[in-house]
Amino acid sequence: MSTAELNADLTAKARIRQVALELFALNGADATSMRAISSRAGVTVGLITHHFGTKSGLIQAVEDDILAGIQHAIAYKESDADVDVVVRALDQRLLDHVAENPLVVAYLRRMMLIEPGGEGSDLTERFTRMALEQIKDLRRRGIASTSREAEDQVMQVMLVQLGQVLLQPFLQQIAGHLDRDPEQYRLSLRKTRN
User: Is DNA-binding among this UniProt entry's keywords (predicted)?
Assistant: First the structure.
């Protein structure tokens, strides 16, 4: 999206957050200056600090937005009654969200694999807490198994869902070297209730 399109479509605060997401995803948070964000967003550095305080505050706002979007995408819906339907729906909603938000995926890869624990980012910890809360909610609803610890279920979900998202370029390269369609190797969560 061009700067002019961003300016027309978003409030200044949302525009700053969107530009920060883009630049952080492409260059990393450490390599992205507040000045670069202000220039691309068409605002002053002072406006960024007014809305977000510091660069760490801006990183937190970007991650808040990312996590809210993912949480909304994978939220349990009352119409998902059958266990198999719930599992397939959660997988598909995450894949759809990822497909619709390539900058989010690029940001996750960078901040979780390349710059983990970078300035202002506690993304992995927050992702883990979000997944644990979702598992606990699904357990309360009788959707997820209670035969093993919730923490083990979180590890499985993170490995299958998040691992697949983070490692997709690597898996595509491997499939290409083997003349295989990477889509046939998509992982999915197994049924979680006994």
Answer: yes
Of residues 73 and 192, more confidence is placed in 73
Is the pTM for the entire model greater than 0.70?
yes
Q: Got the DSSP string for 143-159?
A: -S--SS-HHHHHHHHII
- Burial (CB < 10 A; 0-12, 13-18, 19+), residue 17, is buried
Angle between helices 34-41 and 45-52 (to 10 degrees): 110
Paired tokens of 23: 């630049």
For the chain, give every domain's residue range: 1-53, 63-194
Under the banding of pLDDT at 50, 70 and 90, the label for residue 122 is confident
- As given in the structure block, the two tokens for residue 32 are 């992205």
Kindly state the tokens that stand for 63: 């991650």
Task: Give the ranges where 44-193 is alpha helix by DSSP (H).
Answer: 45-52, 55-73, 83-100, 102-109, 123-140, 150-157, 163-177
Write out pLDDT tens, residues 140-183. 888 888 899 999 988 988 887 777 777 877 777 888 888 888 77
Q: Of 54, 73, 63, 174, nearest to 108 (Cα)?
A: 63
Fold of 1-53: Arc Repressor Mutant, subunit A (1.10.10)
Amino acid identity of 174?
I
